[in-house]
Design brief:
Layout: H1 2-32, H2 39-50, H3 54-60, E1 65-71, E2 74-80, E3 87-92, H4 106-116, E4 118-123, H5 135-150, E5 156-161, H6 163-178, E6 185-189, H7 201-204, H8 214-225, E7 248-253, H9 259-271, E8 276-281, H10 288-291, H11 296-311
Parallel strand pairs: 3-4, 3-5, 5-6, 6-7, 7-8
Antiparallel strand pairs: 1-2, 2-4
Helix pairs in contact: 5-6
Length: about 325
């Protein structure tokens, strides 16, 4: 009886931990990053609450290593949480194209490095509305070329979350257009891949998404796309021909309004002959592996991400 009670208590505790984490996530995100909150105010809030100094991180994790990189006006930071990475990751951060930076993504980059046994590069691509499309895509291409040349001896992956996930897809399309080498694979967390908000989940999940809404997508899209047509593939990869791309792993929360962005990308890629897998986090919200890393659902997602990286390292030894 004692064992049964203990197991039941553990499940009950996990349930409440999950419930409280998701509700707190919703309160914070809706309060700080509303659909009509000015971009500069959101950016300042994101940096204030997301930035962690290198010194404080190295105090907790002495083996952490950081490097600065500059390619003209574009700067990047690389994070290494393991001594001998099996691969390199170029991570394009989220933030609706209007916020986020290498500083505010430092902690997330560390987690990505540790979980995927990788050295992670995070570029400070230009942000909207000051720099609308295609500024972020142009910077992503520069970051890719630099990173690939610098770490040519290792497998390389492209990852991105939210807006960065859509940007990562756009980068793959640009690489294909240029006929240049592709990454070993791409990991896309809750990718924002449709500037037109045409996915059925935008309305289907409007009462279940604790943060984002149709208004968020429509208002924020205008900051980035400027005067461009929102249906062009570089802005909305859901409308692109996805043939000839490397393997894709897409993750999306069951209750987020952007769920169908990931689902439609997975379906279109598969039809085009590009290997694609879509993992849907049961009951999860937008970008949950990065924003709620302590949940069991996040740990499961990280395990799947590591398996994907190891599977596509082309003969390089997997992590211990």
């Amino acid at each position: 009886m004692g064992r049964i009670a203990t197991a039941t208590d553990a499940r009950r505790l996990a349930h409440w931990k999950r419930w409280l984490s998701l509700r707190a996530y919703g309160v914070v995100t809706r309060s700080l990053f509303g659909a009509t909150t000015p971009p500069q105010k959101m950016r300042a809030r994101f940096e204030r609450f997301g930035t962690v100094s290198r010194a404080s991180m190295q105090h907790r994790f002495p083996d952490l290593a950081f490097e600065d990189h500059a390619i003209g006006r574009l700067t990047m930071e690389s994070v290494r949480a393991v001594k001998s990475p099996c691969c390199v990751i170029l991570h394009l951060h989220g933030g609706a194209f209007v916020m986020g930076s290498r500083d505010s993504y430092r902690n997330r980059a560390m987690r990505l490095s540790y979980r995927c046994n990788a050295e992670v590069f995070v570029p400070d691509y230009r942000l909207a509305p000051e720099y609308p499309f295609p500024a972020a895509l142009d910077d992503a291409l520069i970051a890719w070329q630099y990173t690939k040349d610098l770490r040519s001896q290792l497998p390389i992956f492209v990852t991105g979350d939210s807006a960065g996930g859509g940007l990562a897809l756009s980068l793959l399309l640009r690489l294909r257009e240029h006929g240049t080498a592709m990454p070993n694979g791409a990991l896309l967390l809750s990718p924002w891949a449709d500037m037109t908000a045409s996915g059925a989940s935008v309305d289907r999940n409007r009462r279940r998404d604790l943060w984002l809404s149709r208004e968020h997508i429509e208002v924020w899209a205008r900051y980035y796309m400027g005067k461009a047509d929102p249906r062009i593939p570089y802005l909305s990869p859901v409308f692109a021909d996805l043939s000839g791309l490397p393997p894709l792993l897409l993750l999306a929360g069951e209750h987020e309004v952007l769920l169908d962005d990931a689902v439609r990308i997975g379906e279109a890629a598969t039809r085009a002959g590009t290997p694609a897998q879509v993992l849907i986090g049961t009951g999860m919200q937008h970008d949950w592996p990065l924003t709620l890393p302590w949940l069991d659902e996040s740990r499961s997602a990280w395990s799947q991400m590591l398996l994907f990286v190891e599977r596509h390292c082309n003969g390089h030894p997997p992590s211990p």
